[in-house]
Amino acid sequence: MSKRLMSMSFSEVEKLSSKELLEAIALSEGRIMAGECVCSVSPLLNDITNAELAASLSADLVILNIFDVDKPYIGGLVECEKEETIRTLKKLIGRPVGINLEPVDKPEESEVLWAMSKGRMATAENALKAKEMDVDFIVITGNPGNGVTNEGIISSIKEIRKALGDDIILITGKMHASGSVSEAGEKIIDKETIKQFIEAGTDIIMIPAPGTIPGITVELAHELISYIHSFNKLAMTAIGTSQEGSDTDTIKRIALNCKMAGADIHHIGDSGYVGMALPENIMAYSIAIRGVRHTYRKIGQSINR
Predict the structure, then answer these.
(1) 150: domain CATH number?
(2) Would you say residue 133 lies in a domain?
(3) H/E/C letters for each residue in the chain?
(4) Other CB atoms within 10 Å distance of the CB of residue 1
(5) CA atoms 188, 271, 88, 116: torsion sign
């Protein structure tokens, strides 16, 4: 019998295939939290990874930003062999873990914090390395100023899907313009782009959360998500505009707007300060979309179950 991801133990989650994980997310009916963390910076709590903190605050999925498959590193992680970095983290947090990969054409133009490296490019070679490390999903997207375009995302989806088949979940889209002036505001994504993402082989389409990007209203987000659902694909709304560092009232408003729009996964970004969302905002978001019962259950559940 199928089960909701939000209700699963780690021993159940770690056995899921990509198809089963997608089904478990869908069965959770818009109550799945994805916490993004920058793994290249010093963690908020010094000797505890940001991923551990995000998971402890009820994140169901963890996304690692600035993770280089050639030089695996997560700030605060216990010592381990480089090829065991992801598996070690998963044992600590008991959550599915994904990484961002970026289709950047001109990496030399990137901002310093987000400056690209070969191991972070959205290529089949890097996706295969990520899969060998036991990454559960790959987010094909762009960091600030990196010049990522939807055309580049589509090309990467095709390349990675051809190389990996259905062995990994692909999430694709942008949470802000990512340095592409022609794809800013409400031009970040439209129905034609969504169709192209799906035809290329994506599983989950990411769109900016209503209220985070100029022009992305609840009505537009709902229209786009309904279109995504018409293809039996999932949608993830994303906060990537540093509003993950806003006050809790703002976070709760964004959360309910995303829920009304139809989000299957609620992403909260990595820039409360730098590295992850403010802890209180992860909690506030979770409680807004699923109440204290499910939030505290996720917090209190041992990863040894």
Answers:
(1) 3.20.20.330
(2) yes
(3) CCCCHHHCCHHHHCCCCHHHHHHHHHHCCCCEEEEEEECCCCCCCCCCCHHHHHHHCCCCEEEEECCCCCCCCCCCCCCCCHHHHHHHHHHHHCCCEEEEEECCCCHHHCCCCCCCCHHHECCHHHHHHHHHCCCCEEEECCCCCCCCCHHHHHHHHHHHHHHHCCCCEEEEECCCCCCCHHHCHHHCCCHHHHHHHHHHCCCEEEEECCCCCCCCCHHHHHHHHHHHHCCCCEEEEEECCCHHHCCHHHHHHHHHHHHHHCCCEEEECCCCCCCCCCHHHHHHHHHHHHHHHHHHHHHHCCCCC
(4) 2
(5) positive
Largest CA distance in the chain: 50
Could you list the residue range(s) of the whole structural domain that residue 100 is in?
31-299
Summarised one tens digit per residue, pLDDT across range 231-274 is 999 999 999 999 999 999 999 999 999 999 999 999 999 999 88
Kindly indicate the confidence band of residue 114, based on its pLDDT and cuts at 50, 70 and 90: low
How confident is the model at residue 105, as a pLDDT?
66
Is 52 within the bounds of a domain? yes
Average pLDDT score over the chain: 93
Reported pTM: 0.95
Residue 113 pLDDT: 55
pLDDT digit string (tens) for 60-70?
999 999 999 99
Say how many domains are in the chain: 1
Structure tokens that stand for 287 in this block: 């409680």
Please indicate, yes or no, if residue 50 is contained in any of the structural domains: yes
